[in-house]
Amino acid sequence: MEPLNPDWGNLPFGYYKTDYNIRTYYRDGKWGEFEISSSEYIPLHMAATALHYGQEAFEGLKAYRGKDGKVRLFRWEENAKRMRTSAYGIMMEEVPDEIFFGAVEKAVKMNARFIPPYGTGATLYVRPLLIGSGPQVGVKPADEYMFMVFVTPVGPYFKEGFKPVAIEVVRDMDRAAPLGTGRYKVGGNYAAGMRASERAHQGGFASVLFLDALEKKYIDEAGPANFFGIKDNTYITPKSESILPSITNMSLEQIAKDLGLKVERRKVPFDELDSFEEAGACGTAAIISPIKKVTDHSTGKTVEYGDEPGPVSTKLYNHLRGIQEGTIEDAHGWTTVIEGI
Ligand code: PLP
Ligand code: COI
Fold this sequence. Notes:
By secondary structure, this protein is an alpha+beta fold.
């Protein structure tokens, strides 16, 4: 087999071909056996509901090579649960946890040579995908579903890594309606946010900050990541029905408590941005991306937090990564070691 020697330290967050992916189909009322494929393509019915009516949900988690050489998944049960919630939300067949984990474990094990070494900052991103594969022309749920898992080695989502980024507020577009699908990890939300996010990139911003769609008064989330602010020894993060419940954010809330901070999950008025000492975006792909400044073109106002990560964000970041890489005790039982690789 070809030796693998990419420049792990400079890997972008992108697609990198690996050896195998795992698939299974829900047909005639039951999930079938795993199929191991080395094809990057999926044969798909042209009338599949995923293509026409957006029956599609995905997940994102990572396998981390630890300092001790072990490979760990971080809170995969939460990803499995969220995928079941997403499936429920858009009327797809739910993937049982044992199928979710079985496919993830197999995909990681069979592509072990692509797991980046400890200390490079790169990780193996795991992408479970659930789609309506059965045909419909009328708007109704498919009878058949395909669940698959592929993996790809990645660097940090924001090329800056753990360096503060500039973001811009978006007021003329919404990612999700208040009672819509924002809390599910479905493709449609990403399509809805793409024009705003590309405009931000073209303007030199790393990401957008979405506000609540109803009043444009409260912070929702920061592109593909949740938002948090720090002030008065308190970790503050938005409570909203239209944001994705981030597993990273949930973990940071606990870590913040463990480190002696207070935690508030509540509506966060946009006007409160001024009062934060630090701000950040968090997610599996983004890890923690400190925010340097938030620009609001409608008022011409920019709130600045500085060019270097703040002390609390740094502590949270180091603690989270330490648990994921096995250098800090996993006091909450969040990691699962994948044996045999
Ligand atoms: N918000 C959105 C819209 C996302 O796509 C993600 C990524 O999954 C997150 C937040 C962060 O969620 P998590 O920490 O579970 O990866
Ligand atoms: C993640 O953090 O896993 C994401 O989903 C971000 C983005 C690639 C969609």
